[in-house]
TrEMBL record:
Its cofactor is pyridoxal 5'-phosphate. Residues 49-350 form the Aminotransferase class V domain. The keyword Transferase applies. It comes from Acerihabitans arboris. Belongs to the class-V pyridoxal-phosphate-dependent aminotransferase family. This is Aminotransferase class V-fold PLP-dependent enzyme. One of its GO terms (molecular function) is alanine-glyoxylate transaminase activity. Substrate binds at residue 364. The modification N6-(pyridoxal phosphate)lysine is found at residue 201. Keywords: Aminotransferase, Pyridoxal phosphate, Transferase. It comes from the Bacteria. It holds the Pfam family Aminotran_5.
Length: 414
């Protein structure tokens, strides 16, 4: 029997979220979300939608007209892009260096793509040459990349790939969810045709909205499909069904017509999430995107110094690590899950576990968004040292904290 009286108002425990995301939302974002709703075609609402487009052009470093939100978590952005780009039978190339590369493969297969992969060992990234060689060999229609793969903490350099894609007439997409706002991303300068992201990493918001940006070249591909679907274009050499986008919700052509001046009714825009997304972008742009990236770099590097100062090992090719997340090797003889439990129960701090080949081998510690702050770094290091000492991994008392502090001091003096 449902005893409704026993259900209290939602009141989650206070936590400091220092994992690979989600992280604590900026209180200003939470306040924006609690604003009252307005009608879908209220001029204030369409005004906010237009502002969101302008703000996200700033964050994506792009002049792309089609810069907007897909309602849903980051994965909704990925699906919208892939479903709208890929026709059944198209070849795509996915350089896989972690779990999210496998996700792109899986979604592309559901789009009936012919999926080709190249793989890098977890903890490493690809050279541009290796990707170009694969493009030459496979001649895919699209290159699907992950910029920052949180499963390994690595950041794939993208700057040179756009020119390569142009040379071979390949569409260039990246999932930037983990890296967006905390690491450089130059959509136009790097020749990206589509990028998707989310709010719950460096943007300091909750999950549930996926900002995307689409190049004019990408738009043209989508529009061509749409015309076929409506029976306007009949001169196609392809079967009409192959041109159809197999989703209504994620049909980017329809979503563009909803966000554009036509305002053709599609879904009901997730208003509270749009308020959150607008506030996330407003805060980052007021801080200055370069300053926000520098902040993630600073606190990420301080965490790295602290972890090393404690005598712990770090995972992967550190030169290619994202600014905002660090893989920490679980020392021998220590139960990684017990450490996470003690951190959560006695310090209310959450750090991340790992998947697949890294399961049980590393923790992932984030310094991102609202939690890319000195006090969060210091609290986490202090708690981790205490827990590890209690479980028998002795590090000199306070060594991690002092190393992080030294890092902050050295940067302040520089
Ligand atoms: C965290 C993350 C996501 C998250 O997707 P959700 O649908 O928001 O859970 C997607 N891609 C990457 C690379 C991520 O790091």
């Amino acid at each position: 029997m449902l005893d409704i009286a026993s259900y209290d108002q939602i009141n989650p425990p206070a936590r400091l979220l220092m994992g690979p995301g989600p992280i604590n939302a900026d209180p200003r974002v939470l306040r924006a979300m609690s604003s009252q709703l307005i009608g879908q075609y209220d001029p204030s609402m369409t005004g906010y939608m237009n502002e969101v487009m302008v703000l996200y052009r700033g964050l994506f470093n792009t002049a792309n007209r089609w810069t907007m939100l897909i309602d849903g978590t980051s994965r909704a952005g990925i699906e919208a892009v892939l479903l709208s780009a890929i026709r059944p039978g198209d070849k795509v190339l996915v350089p896989v260096f972690g779990r999210f590369g496998h996700l792109l493969c899986e979604i592309a297969r559901r789009c009936r793509a012919e999926v080709h992969t190249i793989e890098a060992p977890w903890g490493q990234v690809f050279s541009a040459d290796r990707i170009e060689d694969a493009i030459k060999r496979i001649r895919p229609r699209a290159l699907l990349t992950v910029q920052g793969d949180t499963s390994t903490t690595m950041l794939q350099p993208l700057a040179e790939l756009g020119a390569i894609c142009r040379r071979y007439d390949v569409l260039f997409y990246s999932d930037a969810t983990a890296s967006f706002g905390g690491n450089r991303l130059d959509t136009d300068a790097w020749g990206l045709d589509a990028v998707s992201a989310g709010l719950q990493k460096c943007l300091g918001g909750p999950s549930g909205s996926a900002p995307v940006t689409l190049s004019p070249r990408f738009e043209e591909q989508i529009r061509r499909r749409k015309c076929v679907e409506q029976g306007i274009r009949t001169d196609t050499h392809r079967d009409g069904d192959d041109e159809m986008i197999y989703s209504n919700y994620f049909d980017l052509g329809m979503i563009m017509d909803y966000w554009g001046p036509e305002r053709l009714n599609h879904h009901t825009e997730a208003t509270s999430m749009l308020f959150a997304a607008r506030e996330c972008a407003r805060l980052l742009l007021q801080e200055g995107l370069d300053n926000a990236i520098a902040r993630h770099e600073l606190h990420g590097a301080a965490m790295l110094s602290g972890i090393r100062g404690m005598g712990l090992g770090v995972f992967g090719d550190i030169a290619h690590k994202m600014n905002n997340v660090l893989g920490v090797v679980i020392p021998g003889g220590v139960d990684g899950e017990q450490v996470r439990q003690l951190l959560l129960n006695d310090f209310a701090i959450e750090i991340g576990t790992s998947f697949g080949p890294l399961n049980g081998k590393i923790w992932r510690i984030g310094t991102m968004g609202y939690n890319a702050r000195k006090d969060c770094v210091m609290q986490t290091l202090a708690a981790l040292e205490a827990v590890l000492n209690r479980l028998g991994f002795a590090s000199p008392q306070g060594a991690g904290l002092q190393a992080a502090w030294d890092h902050y001091a050295s940067v302040a003096e520089a």
